[in-house]
Amino acid sequence: MKRHLESNVDNEVHIEKQRAKLNVDEERLNLFKNWLNEHNVIWDNIDIRSSILYKGFSVYSTSSEELPNIQIPTILLMSNESAKNSSTFVLPTFDILDQTDQHIDRETLILSLFLLHERLKGIQSHWYPYIQLLPTTFTTPLFHKENYVENTSVFYLTETMRQSMSEVWDLIGSSTFQLEDFLWAYTAITSRAFKLNELGTTLIPLADLANHVSFAHEANLYSMGINKETDRFVLKATEKKILDGEELCLKYNNELANWQLLLYYGFTIENNPLDSILLELKMDSNDTYEMEIKKMLLLNLSEDLCLEHELKITENEPIISENLLATLRLIVMSNEELEQFNISNLNQLLSSMVSVDNEGRVLNKLLIFLNELKDVPYTTTLEENLNRFQSNQLNDDERYSLIYLIGQKQILDNAQRWIDNALSQLK
Hints:
CATH superfamily of the largest domain: set domain protein methyltransferase, domain 1
Pfam family, one: Rubis-subs-bind
Distance between the termini: 66 Å
Organism: Rotaria sordida
Largest sheet: 4 strands, antiparallel
Order of helices and strands: HEEEEEHHHHHHEEEEEEHEHEHHHHH
Helix content: 40-55%
GO molecular function: protein-lysine N-methyltransferase activity
CATH class of the largest domain: Alpha Beta
Structural class: alpha+beta
Keywords: Methyltransferase, S-adenosyl-L-methionine, Transferase
CATH architecture of the largest domain: Alpha-Beta Complex
Protein name: Rubisco LSMT substrate-binding domain-containing protein
Shape: elongated
Radius of gyration: 27 Å
Number of helices: 14
Strand content: 5-15%
């Protein structure tokens, strides 16, 4: 009975906290909406509310008949021009900019510091209604409380990024803010800012509530940039049919794999077709005559044969390409086999095996490379990740990281099964 009562109390506390959060979120959102209206922002046929898929707020269509129309006066945009025109903000010295150039571009650095400056001003800031609506934390690995990405390249890139930003912060030498404040501002810029011809890196209130998609056919909004006649930043609807209540999204400038989405934007896409694994082939380091011949042949046929190959899951295409097989057929050739080939007939490797023995060496070499790719970066198995992904205990950090890990391991698993099948056919 006591356990049951404790459970009820916990539920009531949780519900009360959720109710309080909803009230606060509504107040924040109303403040932001009023600010937009006070500055004559045009936001026709859209609504702002909590995102269905992500934390924070997003924009949604309010009509299946009327198209969304967003036009934002440039006075609400936050850019390097805003920082330079501010009467209270002190720009970093040229000496600091020179010293930090290797770690962060100048526009991002200045805008990050200016955002922190405006946040410190509180309600005195022109952008206060916008800043108080920004997330207080992010789902990029920089903000993860645990290492959810194991020993992958994302982990090492995150550590490198943290070290670089720490060095930048040491050079700035602020006594007002902490490194974590700077990482917050830096991530707000890198994950939300637009690149405008007129202003460079720019935070655009309201427009940055539109989440992004990786593929053009999924986007229902696009940027028209700044209209010089009206002095407004404009978002218009694409030709895609938009339904009432549908979330409005922009397309990223580039198509991004999950490692990029996670590292820079803090989310991932299940079954992302742009996911791949780089397989770097290694040749023996000895300087024999035969090895020099192999290197020369590779160099002369670099369009077809090379030492770097992408493994990716593509519909109706084998995960192990003919180019990869052909390169390995050359690399593992015996001296006798090598005598049969020269530049004029090397293209035969793209369409047929050298011999059953050579093909067996190729496939076993591939297995060695694959096992190296599995053993070094991963501390869990694909099956363990898939089981964990079914849990209802996941936070966003772990969920997005699992999607990334599962995608990478499925590529390796598909490659392993392809090789196993090829070896069984050889026998």
